[in-house]
């Protein structure tokens, strides 16, 4: 069982919505999940209709069966202050560094420091235990991660840091994070659409993750529209059946059949083209040798009801379990 579920995807594929739905799906049956945001967009708060998330773990939803979903928007500056206190016991000295601008410099200018802090905070939540019971504080941690084009470097930055700092707490912390990220405890899921560019970026992302020895989870195909025509109708849509359709509509007593035929044929041809393109993209995804799951298009948009609908689907498919 993977306890850290990383969700990435090309912009516009709905990765934040899928990450939120996955947190709900895995929180069923009385479990606790933590949904982590690392990009500072407050996308989770917008989805759940809450105020902007502070730098603290806050309960935002209750899943079917009584499970609880907590959320955390990781702030790199505050994470660095935590780090300085944890390893160097700086306390007020760390706050003084913030006033001097050193914290802001470290998180915005120093290469890789920001990503080290973000991944480190998520992995700390994975490793954390309840002091009373000794059980994991969270059964699953779900990270709404950066887009596919950046995900491998984002997750692998601690490996680079461990190589640069060969001794001391920074080296030890970086190694501890990479032990989580490259272990069976972690699964990196990529969200895509059945469109050429997102599918190609997904294929490239999986290749990069594998090259870096990072664990690939599954491909989540989002916003899949239903097929309104069967295979025979799809094939027929490519031909010229204007006269035949006009006669059928007229026989059915539909007024103005001649004017309706053109738009109907155009829509049918567009649908047939989309079905053909989606078939090609499914074939491309099948070659990646990764579990693939399809999620429905939400006609009403990604509101709370839609997130719960996706959560039920993910639960049924067994994603992340």
Automatic annotation (TrEMBL):
Residues 5-181 form the ArsA/GET3 Anion-transporting ATPase-like domain. Pfam families: ArsA_ATPase (PF02374). One of its GO terms (molecular function) is ATP binding. SUPFAM superfamilies: P-loop containing nucleoside triphosphate hydrolases. This is ATPase. The lineage of its organism: Bacteria, Bacillati, Actinomycetota, Actinomycetes, Kitasatosporales.
